[in-house]
Amino acid sequence: MSAVDVAVLLSVGRHPASGRSRAADGDARALELALRLGRAARLHAVHAGDPGEPALAEYLGMGLSSLTVLRQPEDADVLPALAQHLAALKPALVLAGAAAERGAGSGMLPYLLAACLGAALLPAIAGLELAAGGVAALQALPRGRRRRLTAPLPCLATVDRSAPAPRQSAFARARRGRILTIDMPAVPMAPDQGRDMPARPRPRRLKLATGASAAERLRAATEMKAGRGRLLVEPAPGDAAAAILDYLIEERILTTDADLQDRKANPG
Amino acid sequence: VSRIRRDPRAERRAAAGAGPRAPSAAPVKTVVIDDPAYLVLAAPDLDNGRLGSDDRDVIGAARLLADAGGGAVVVLAPATTATDFAGAGADRLLTVALPPGYVPEMRAAAVLAAIDWLQPRHVLFPETPTGGGDIGRRVAAQLGELPAVRIARLTADEVASRFDGGRRDRLRAPPRLLLLAGEAADPPSGARWEARPLPPLVLPALYPVIGDGGLASTDPNAVPLAEADFIVSAGNGVSDWPAFHELAAALGAAEGGSRVVCDAGMLPRERQVGTSGTLVEPRCYLAFGIAGAPQHLEGIARCECVLAVNTDLHAEMVKRADLAVIADAQAVMPALAKLARAKLGR
């Protein structure tokens, strides 16, 4: 199989604690997935913004020989520039993080870009490989579960936080990597509606005390959160094991074969 | 544990045969909205056909937006779902026949068809990466609209969206498409609604390209501990380590440990549970020989159910547990592993 063109969209992120510019976490993970494709992929790294941004060196240090920067001012809408560049490049696969770490970060860009390119969109990918005529991806679900997905090319995949961690950025590789700048016309962003304020941490939701009598409600509101407190004292090991296993099956933590067959009969 | 308090007045009433007035016996009123001023559409995820907590919050937010101006809440659900939508806050129920499995393109098409037919004032999704967050953005891209995303809180005339990497909130009037982060609104309570079925939605012909290969079997120890669904954890009371690893494999659970066992090198550091290790939130936490230091209990504060096996009846872990067994871990672990292999057929 000949190598396919893979584009990775890289943005400049911001460190959550220090506030400094850095390689955005989701985009670095996308680059890591692309680098892991090896010789099956011809890699094109694309950034829209300022070519002088020092954080771009972190991407180069991961092992990129070159990085294309579409020169855009700070307040420009990068979608038209990216769409124009990628329409000319015609990559079979585009990888990106889910949302930008600075600015509006609405997470809409991959969707709008996929619509422009006529590509299928795979969200929250944690693993990826190229198969015959398409991609086979692993989608990250809550609680560490993974779902197998397939899609034909061209395809755009956004990368989940549980994708493999980006490799270390090496200073010498960052020095060797080249930044190729392309000047693109800038389209200003639509003006923002509404007003801004610093994010307020959300108060934790209180559990409402419900009960028939005032005494019960007071007890429910003031009592420390504790288990239901079933207690088995010095049971035989077999009895203890049976009690634990019955509890796990009852709470649907574990599924027996009968359950699985039942679920296959009534999916959804 | 406090003594049970007597209520002499209630006792007298019970003796007289009148019985106390129980508030729970009062019928829950059903709210009927016959002629709504406008409609608010809620598109919950309905993972496994059940309303999750995010889904209930989304319906709660839809209620908030509808009740402010005499509107009605329409819930869009696959036809196979059998859930109590009336108790969850739905005035109308719009069903659509969807194939089983992961079909984001068809779900987005269903929402678009519902918008086209009902012309709702607002459409609400839960901001989940593979559910509403994806479907909502697909719909927004199709309509060419900018949705309000990562909504942290909302009122009837203002929504606050997190942006700039979670550092700032943007307050604006609610647009048509709303993607709500967790706990942005409270689920409806205290009444029932009609959940009157609307004629089922008919989808236009569509050829989805994304193929669903089903759930992949994953090694529970390969995912980070913070993401694990079921953790079997060992403390100082565990000395039979082969039996512990065998039990974790038999149950298909991730392994965890207290600080003591990780310090001793019995488990790698990334397996440590507690304030100086990982704060875990599995559905179930099964602890062997863990006394329950405050730092450890802090680490498991968000577990749904906790099971403890310990020789000390007075251990803090035993008080925290939903099911506590006072026994030696070395005796219970092999018995449980054997029983699990026999019963689960692994």
Please provide a written account of the structure.
The complex is a heterodimer of chains A (268) and B (346). Helix content of chain A is 28%, strand content 29%. Chain A has helices at residues 25-36, 56-60, 79-89, 109-117, 171-176, 214-222, 237-250, 257-265, and strands spanning 4-9, 12-14, 21-23, 41-49, 66-71, 93-97, 120-131, 134-140, 146-152, 155-159, 178-183, 195-198, 230-233. Chain A is α/β, with parallel strands linked by helices and 268 residues long. Chain B has 346 residues and is an alpha/beta fold. In chain B, 28% of the residues lie in helices and 23% in strands. Chain B has helices at residues 8-16, 53-67, 85-88, 104-118, 132-143, 241-251, 259-263, 294-299, 316-320, 329-344; strands at 30-31, 39-42, 72-78, 92-96, 122-126, 148-155, 158-163, 168-172, 177-180, 192-193, 196-197, 211-216, 230-234, 254-257, 284-288, 305-310, 323-326. In chain B, the strands form 3 sheets. Chain B has a 9-stranded mixed sheet with strand order 8-7-6-9-5-2-3-4-11, sandwiched between helices. A 5-stranded parallel sheet of chain B has the order 14-13-15-16-17. In chain B, strands 1-10 form a two-stranded parallel sheet. The radius of gyration of chain B is 25 Å and the shape is globular. At the A-B interface, helix 4, strand 7, strand 8, strand 9 and strand 12 of A face helix 5, strand 6, strand 8, strand 12 and strand 16 of B.
The first-to-last residue Cα distance of chain A is 38 Å
Approximately how much beta-strand content do the residues of chain A carry?
25-35%
Structural class of chain B: alpha/beta
Number of strands of chain A: 13
Question: What is the mean predicted local confidence, pLDDT of chain A?
Answer: 87
Spatial strand order of the main sheet of chain B: 8-7-6-9-5-2-3-4-11
Oligomer: heterodimer
Biggest contact: A-B, 86 and 93 residues
Shape descriptor of chain A reads: extended
Q: Using only CA atoms, what is the Rg of chain A?
A: 25 Å
Sequence of secondary-structure elements of chain A: EEEHEHEHEHEEEEHEEHEHH
How much helical structure, as a percent, in the residues of chain A?
25-40%
Look at the structure and give the mean pLDDT of chain B: 89
What distance separates the N and C termini of chain B? 42 Å
Widest sheet, order of strands of chain A: 9-8-7-10-6-1-4-5-11
Strand residue content of chain B: 15-25%
Helix tally of chain B equals 10
| H/E topology pattern of chain B | HEEHEHEHEHEEEEEEEEHEHEHEHEH
Q: Briefly note the structural class of the backbone of chain A.
A: alpha/beta
